[in-house]
Amino acid sequence: MIATLTDFGVTGPYTGQMLAAILQHSEQSRVVDLISDLPRFTPELSAYLIPGLTDHFPVATVFVCVVDPGVGGSRLPLMVEADGKWYVGPDNGLLALVVRRASQCRIRSITWRPKVLSNSFHGRDLFAPVAAKIADGESVQGDFLTNTQIMGCGLPDDLLKIIYIDDFGNLITGMRAAAVDDTSVIVLENQRINAGLIFSECPPGDPFWYVNSMGLIEIAVNQGSAQERFNAGLGDPIAVTGLGRPD
Q: What kind of architecture, by CATH, is found in domain 159-241?
């Protein structure tokens, strides 16, 4: 199986072109467009989504990960084997958390090149065929790198920022569940937000935070939009206190 994770957007030709390129090189592959609205131009935010999004896929899945504002520049193209799954994408911090959290990991810079490689669309011309080759069991030329040689190795384990806003207006943060407990209070725009286990536990219109299906802390408003409630945007900072709920 091959899954794509990009910031290409849900309209326009780019996701379709990349999927077609995968199938052109590997007609038998099953291809899933997992997400096409990763935080645009910001691999340092998108990096925190990728581990959770890919966690439930089986071993040997190949993930094409493209948030690549430096496409055509000096950044390296990477292929990473992490705990039996493969990740293909740019060396700009996008794969840093995948590498760090893996029990076993091998990283290579991709030295193979197609006959035609545009300066602006490595997702289609380079990463897609490499993913197809890996899925088909073909070897791909590359030079081995260490964990500390890739970009983003200095990113924090948990990021106290909003990294994604879904269509419901829910605010996903870069913090994992282990970073807090149910007595923690999240502060956003000088407003205190307590924990809630499930949506139905909170009255309609009330904000709360919870651990989402990816294991990340998410801020929501029951039957409303946390984005509108807090006038929040990508990259906005949050704070965490241990004061818990007031009596």
A: Beta Barrel (2.40)
Q: Answer yes or no: CATH 3.10.310.30 is held by domain 2-149.
A: no
User: Whole-number mean pLDDT of the chain?
Assistant: 95
- Strand arrangement of the beta sheet that strand 207-211 belongs to: 159-165, 171-176, 216-221, 207-211
Alpha-carbon distance of 47 to 100, in angstroms, equals 11
| 0.85 surpassed by pTM | yes
The tokens describing 26, both together, are 């590997």
Is a pLDDT exceeding 70 seen at residue 246? no
Instruction: Return d(Cα 220, Cα 149) in angstroms, integer.
Output: 37
The percent of residues in the chain predicted with pLDDT above 90, rounded, is: 93
Alpha helices (H) along 36-167: 43-46, 50-54, 96-101, 122, 128-135
Q: 99 with 147: CB under 8 angstroms? A: yes
The residue with tokens 């990021």 is 159
Location of each CATH 3.40.50.10790 domain in the chain: 2-149
For residues 42-69, average pLDDT: 98
CB atoms within 10 A of CB 222: 17
pLDDT reported for residue 247: 36
Helix (H) or strand (E) holding 220: strand 216-221
pLDDT in tens, 172-203: 999 999 999 989 999 999 999 999 988 988 89
DSSP at 49: T
Helix (H) or strand (E) holding 185, with range, is: strand 185-188
